[in-house]
Every structure is written in structure tokens, then in C-alpha cells.
Amino acid sequence: MKRLFIYILIFVFCLTATGTFAENSNKYYNEKTQIISLNNVNLYDFFYETNNSYVPKFIPLTKKQESLLDRKSKQIYKKVLKSEKAFQRALTQESNLSKRIYYYHKAIKYNPQNYMAIAMLSEAYLALKDYNNALYYAQLVISVYRKEFDFVYYVAGAASNSLNDLNASIRYFDAFLKNSNESSEINSFVMYLQAMNYFYLDRYSKAIDYANLSLQKSKKYEKENTLLKYYCYYIQKKYKYAKQEAWKLVQLEPSAENYMKMADNTENLNDKLIYLNTAKRLYYDPKDIFYVNCEIAKIEQNKINNVHKKMGVYSPKPDWFKISNENIGSISYWNNRQDEFFASTNSCIAKYKGSDLAKCFSDVINNEKEKTMNLKKSIYDSQMLYLQLQQLDAIQDNNKLQRQQNYLLNRPSL
User: Which domains, and CATH codes, for the chain?
Assistant: First the structure.
């Protein structure tokens, strides 16, 4: 009868150990129930207390509790202690990713149910950009889902994204956002990543929705979300809304690129010129300046063409593209000359009409011809000077060689 009672006690313990120990403040021992065995017990539930904390607290057995374990359970408990020691060692290796991963693996080796070690290992592999392993270990934790491990859904989403499985990434990020207790900034960042997933899937409306949700959560990623919304509208040729987002970008960062976005989505030519000229002043790379100058020249030259058609008198037409076709001189030179050219033609248009405008245009053309002649002469003079210097260097080298030869021929005998 006594033996039957013990069997019943063991059976009841195996059924209720996890729930009983999770609910009691001292979840390992009470005076009425002795710990018989750690076999078939979920070691994570048994030894870790979460209380909604990011890193669960390990609760070791007391000496009295440890003395009640059978032989096999004592071996299991020793491995649990070694697992926890390795896990804590891993947490101290913040700057050494390879060592951190090593100790997480060691912790899992001793206790395969150390889910926190598995979860943190997936995060470490993500930091290492080993996306296959990051996803593998994140999925291990997800398969035994626990609320305190909601961050592994982020790991799985980020890893899937890097492996170009965007639909899987969307599912994991949705699960993260559904279960997350993280800060508004972290949730905002994940919403932005989700918006990017939809963007690359050409689902622009969903991308805009998530970008807006991200902005509602936090303004930390305002620039990134606004830029994403800009491209969503621009690709869909919704230029009115694209311009609104471009203006927000200018307010956030008044850069040349953002002023170019304003120019790209502005129909009014005078406003477009303002944005283009502002971008040109902010650019440093000569190639960027050259590109902007081409865009400005198209608008300005078209203005000259329209005025020239309506003049009513014959006049040669100032044509910047013919003038700048010389293909000589630096980008900086032609940048300044273009500014001067259109300043002159705009002044003519503003001041004169009819024959007076025709004379003003002729003066501009003659002035440009003179500049071109001076440029060619300057280049020719530079080339001639270069040739003269080369000839002078050759003469000096020849004189030096002659002096050496004379020295060898006339040196005193020993």
C-alpha cells in the first residue's frame, strides 16, 4: 500500500510539476511534496522565473532541495548549473561575438531546454550576419513559443529579409508586433522594416500604411519613413503626394538630393529653377553640378526659344547648347559661364522688346564668341608654354650630360 502511494505521488508530480512550481513563490519545494525526479520535466520552466523580464532569472535549488534528488536527477541538475554558468559567461562577452556564440552553444549543450540561450544565440548569429543559423535557432524557440521570447520573431524576420524571403519576413514581423512588449522606438523600427518588405514586393499602399504606423509610434525614423513614402508615390506617378513628401524631406534635411526631388515633382518652371539652382549650390561633385546645369539649361534655353519666336524681327538666337559644344575647358569654367550667359539673356528679355531685344541678343552672342576665342587662345598659350618648358628641360638635361662628359675627358690622371 505504501509503495502504491509513492507511485501515485510520482505520477501526480509529473503531471503537475510545471504548473505547481510556476505558481508558487517557492516553486521547487514545500513541506508536503518532495522532489523525486527531474526526468521528463521541462527544465526551463522548472529553473527559470521570468516575471516579464527580458532575461529570465535562474532559481537554483537549496541544499535541502538538492539532497532530495535521485542520482539521475543530480546529474541533470549539475548540467543545468553548468548551462547557466556558460550562459552567464556568454552575457559578459559583449565585444567578442565569437566567444559569446561559443558559450551560448556550451550552455545549450548542457541543457538543450535553455531557451534563453537558444534565443540569444539566434540574436548573436544575426549580429554576425550568419542569417541561416540566426533563422534556424530563432525557429527552434518559436516552435515552443514563450511570451518572453517575442524578440526572436524580430530575429527571424530580419534573417528572412536578408535571405530574400520577404513573405516569411512579413509573417515574422507581424507576429513580433502582435506580441511585442518592446518600446515604441523598437516597434517603430520594425514597422519601418515591414514597410520596406512591402515596398520591395511592389505593394506600395501597404508600405505607406506601415510607414505611417511607424511614424505614429515614434519620430526617430521620420526621415527614413518619409523617404520611403516619397518613392512609393513617385513610382506610382502620384507626383502631387511625392512633392509633399519631398518638402518634408527638405525640412528634415535641406540637402541637394532633396531639393532635386522637389524639382522633379514641380510643374511650375520658375519654382523648378529655384530648386535646381539651390541644389547646384549645395553639390560638391563636378559631375552632379554638370547634371544640374543640363537640367537648368533645358528650361532656360526653352524660354529663349519661345521669346525668339515671338520677337517679330529677325535676330540671331542665343543658343547655349551650340556655345557649350566646344568641349574644351573645365566643368567649373562652363558652370560660371552658363550662369553668366543666362543672366545676360534673362536681363535682355526683362528689359527689351522687338529690335532692342534683337540687338541685346546680338550683343550676348558676340560676347560669347569673344569668350570662346579667349578660351581657345588661353588653351593655346598654355600648350605653347608647356612645350617651351619641355624644350627648356631638354636643353638643361643636354647641358648637364655635356658637363659630365667634359669632366670625364678632362679629369687629371692619377
Answer: 1-113 (no CATH), 194-266 (1.25.40.10), 284-401 (no CATH)
